[in-house]
Specification:
Elements lengths: L1 E9 L3 H8 L12 E7 L7 E8 L2 E13 L3 E6 L4 E10 L12 E10 L16 H28 L8 E5 L4
Antiparallel strand pairs: 1-7, 1-8, 2-3, 3-4, 4-5, 5-6, 6-7
Length: 176
Amino acid sequence: METVEASTLVYQSPEEIYDFLVDFQQYEDYSKYVTNIDRDGADDAGAVYDITCSWWKIDYTAEATVTDVDAPSRIDWEVSRDVDAHGHWEIEHVPEEAPDDAEDACRVHCFVEFDLESADAKALNLPGIIPIDKVIDKVKPKAATFGRIVATRMVADLEGEQRELDITVHETPATV
């Protein structure tokens, strides 16, 4: 299994951040690669999201399920088919880290664990001449950049304006 964990400070209350993050449907606004998100169920445990992504020669719909919630501090999820992947959002209340011009602060962590070897190449509808490991090699270097862009856009929506973020990223193994 490979893991990626990223965190950054957000200058809002835990409740506002939780309400924002639990609504996965808005995530399509943060990436040109996410073209549609449909939800079945409420914004809590048991909700299932079909997340359609398009990139290069790939059109794929991932099915993600919210497996557990602990409002306003944690949202657990898993990909329900085609790849072994799961993760969680964790909201750590740290009001002492708020700058003078902010009323509150939380450190928001995104943790993802996945097994690329479990990816189902047939689900990606790749032409037979394109091996899945070549696609994975193309995606890996883009993942961190994509994550930073998404985080910047999400924080801007939460706080009402864009700012430079200090995002800490931990990856294991280092080949991610």
